[in-house]
Amino acid sequence: MDEYCFYSKSAKGFFDSNLYAPEDSVKITAQERSELLASESSGLVLHIEFDNRGVTTPIEPIITKDELKEIEWRWRNYELGLTDRVFTRDFGPNEWSEADRDTAQNTIMAHRRNLKDWSEKTHPEFPNSEHRPVWPESVPRPAV
Fold it and tell me: What pTM, to 2 d.p., does this model score?
């Protein structure tokens, strides 16, 4: 025997009983509920619209361009904070010479300039995260 529950678009939730479910609730199987919850926990959202049976479908979340810009600015500020650590005396492997430290710091200064330039004014790809400035491979990334 199949187990059923109910999903309500207006309440954006599941109900075990039709007794307490809103009028717009649709009957779905327990398996469908499990799949929807699993997709939601993996970062997808439940689509507002219903398919022809009345069941929601998981989709990628829709993020506005302003929200993407905010994400990129927060990422950039975080990365700038990491670059500050390179300028402490105890940064880097113990075997680094003074020249190694100077080279790392100069490399990070160039990376800082790239981070500060990461904007829509200088990069038409902004806020596409695939085009972010990349941490230089020659400098170890500080531990968080």
Answer: 0.57
